[in-house]
Amino acid sequence: MTNDKHLTELIANACHFYHQGWMIGTAGNLSARLPNGSFWITASGCSKGELSPSDFVRISPQGQVEQTSPSLKPSAETAIHQVIYKLFPDATSCYHVHSVEANLVSRFVQGDSLPLPPLEMLKGLGVWEENPKCSLPIFANHLQVTRIAADIEERFTKSPPDVPALLIRDHGITVWATSPETARNYIELVEYIFRYLVAARRTGIEEFG
Ligand SMILES: [Zn+2]
After folding, report:
1. Are 64 and 131 in contact (CB under 8 A)?
2. Where residue 71 falls among pLDDT bands split at 50, 70, 90?
3. How many whole angstroms from 132 Cα to the centroid of ligand 1?
4. Are 139 and 203 in contact (CB under 8 A)?
5. 206 CA to centre of ligand 1 in angstroms
6. Please, what are the domains in the chain?
7. Which residues sit with Cβ closer than 5 angstroms to ligand 1, an ion?
8. pLDDT (tens digit per residue) in 15-27
9. Comparing C-alpha atoms, which of 66, 74, 69 is closest to residue 34?
10. C-alpha dihedral (87, 89, 90, 93), degrees to nearest 10
11. Rounded distance, CA 97 to CA 171, Å?
């Protein structure tokens, strides 16, 4: 895939998520890893509904800025993408959005895992079990993003997650995948599950753990 193709995919997916209400303002960040290990990530402060190819920064596997226009800064949350690519060598796409539902469900439990309902939709996230009991890891939000990234690295090194996704409390969801199409599907599936959980709580169906 050429750089142009990577950027075209990122722009299209950011626009799609923006129109779902999941990348409002300049929130969220998407990245695509290149075969040499560097990755393109959305620049800080850009509206995700109207990105252009000049709104991206290329980061080395070690976290250094490799290519950008002088006025741009990489996303403030670059450290999270960097650690995800380090932990999951097959991942080539990492997407992070801020939805209302992601923030609501992150308050449904006090612990560091959100039990997921045993929905058919979990198959789309790679869970092929009857009545699966899996959960989504939750991390505390910190102003200093490198602290969140360090927490992710420490926890996932000891125990890998059930699904290719993680939730930062009162902040948003991050997924990773081996292609941009799959990462986009993962975001949509996880957001569906969040909407289900919010609706289930409203209707009194709450217990999944
Ligand atoms: Zn964020």
Report:
1. no
2. confident
3. 29
4. no
5. 27
6. 3-203 (3.40.225.10)
7. 172
8. 999 999 999 999 9
9. 66
10. 70
11. 9
